[in-house]
Amino acid sequence: MTGWIAIAGLGPGREDLVTPEVNAALAQATDVIGYIPYVARVAPRAGLNLHPTDNRVEIDRALHALQLAASGARVVVVSSGDPGVFAMASAVFEAVENNPEYIQTDIRVLPGITAMLAAAAAAGAPLGHDFCAINLSDNLKPWAIVERRLRLAAQADFAMAFYNPRSKSRPHQFTECLNILREECGSDRLITFARAVSTPEQAINTVTLGDATPEMADMRTVVLVGNSATKYVGRYVYTPRSAL
Amino acid sequence: MTGWIAIAGLGPGREDLVTPEVNAALAQATDVIGYIPYVARVAPRAGLNLHPTDNRVEIDRALHALQLAASGARVVVVSSGDPGVFAMASAVFEAVENNPEYIQTDIRVLPGITAMLAAAAAAGAPLGHDFCAINLSDNLKPWAIVERRLRLAAQADFAMAFYNPRSKSRPHQFTECLNILREECGSDRLITFARAVSTPEQAINTVTLGDATPEMADMRTVVLVGNSATKYVGRYVYTPRSAL
Fold it and tell me: What is the ipTM, given to two decimal places?
């Protein structure tokens, strides 16, 4: 019996945003591994072992998946959104690198609808021109890198998407982020706070940088900042395809 | 009868990467509008009018969708990938802005799996840290903006995804792009050419910038450039979650 790992993206929350490819992998799985709320989205069935784990144990979780696959299990590692965007795919490859006995493991990455694109769709098309995605968490990088990247991204006139904008342990950093953006982009720039996209709690709030406050973001929010041309048309926010 | 527009992403090509949300919209549609090869992916049925159009007529296509919806049609505007990423969503909002009589149109954007994320999944996890997406076509922006954005993105140490890397009419520009990247990132940086991702013709080719040639990209290729930490593990290319 040959085991495998599929690192699967469950999308932002609603079931009709899960791809058939991901559902097919889940139907074949013997084991599902992931952060508690994501594993809770997988329907239990006979013969399927669910392994929910706490946050911030990504490498332990990845190693567990490799061990199970080596023993013949068909393992789906679930992430929300897309597994390759600030999620479990890189963690699994890091675990392989640190445990080369697993280098032959059959690993597939199954893409999903990532939060920024679901948020952009809900708001209109704010990422309709060149854009960047930045993880504002500094668990895995120094804040100085985030600051420098924010300034360069603003100078490049990228639209921007921020994941993990605000943590309980570091509430001041998102304040600093907004200050940097106001300095670089001016106070009229549009910013969209998209909370719990595609779920019943979805809330989309677009304001100017001048009116933005840190409290508009929480752990379930993805933040989108327009480029210099982003504007409203009716109730939609969009970024034109062209740049001057 | 109340018409509407759904701007839908068909994903990179394979049917099991189309979301159920998009298929539900197509099942309700009276009209499907889009570029010829994308409309060709929609199964014909009685009562469904297919309107395939040529490339580079996005605004005409968008206006046609608005006119049909105003007359009560249920219109799906199809894009490949995600409609908000270098695709039809911004074109529809531009058409609304230029034709304010359509401002009350019921417009929804239905996200899809965009090419860069399908390509990243096929290669491993090269976009596993902060990254940017740049449309290399200069149809809609001066090449000087592309050059400046490339340099700033490299200085920010973003991983990068390039859409429309190479056109027949401007083959020299992707050569210039590779030259800029070699200057800014060095010749050892990994670059992945992902062609026709998720289709039977899929080809994933990772080389160093030093070995990259413009001919490795064509109109069906999305190009991914790693950041300074991107590396191989086994046959996979990935970018670690952390930065120093």
Answer: 0.97
Give the residue from chain B lying closest to A86, CA to CA.
B128
Say if residue B72's pLDDT is above 70.
Answer: yes
CATH 3.90.1150.10 assigned to B4-113: no
User: Which pLDDT tens digit goes with each residue over A221-242?
Assistant: 999 999 999 999 999 999 999 8
Superfamily of domain B116-238: Tetrapyrrole methylase, C-terminal domain (3.30.950.10)
The whole-angstrom separation of Cα B224 and Cα B132 is 10
Hey, where are the domains in chain B? Answer: 4-113, 116-238
Identify the residue among A109, A138, A235 best suited for mutation to test binding to B, counting B beta carbons within 10 A and taking the highest.
A109
Q: Rounded to a whole number, what is the distance in Å from the CA of A21 to chain B's nearest CA? A: 5
Task: Give the pLDDT confidence of A17-75 residue by residue, as tens digits.
Answer: 999 999 999 999 999 999 999 999 999 999 999 999 998 889 999 999 999 999 999 99
Torsion, CA B136, CA B138, CA B140, CA B145, rounded to 10: 80
Is the CB of residue B69 less than 8 Å from the CB of residue B4?
yes
The upper half-sphere exposure of residue A232, i.e. CA atoms within 13 Å in the direction of its Cβ, equals 12
Interchain CB distance below 8 Å, B120 and A109? yes
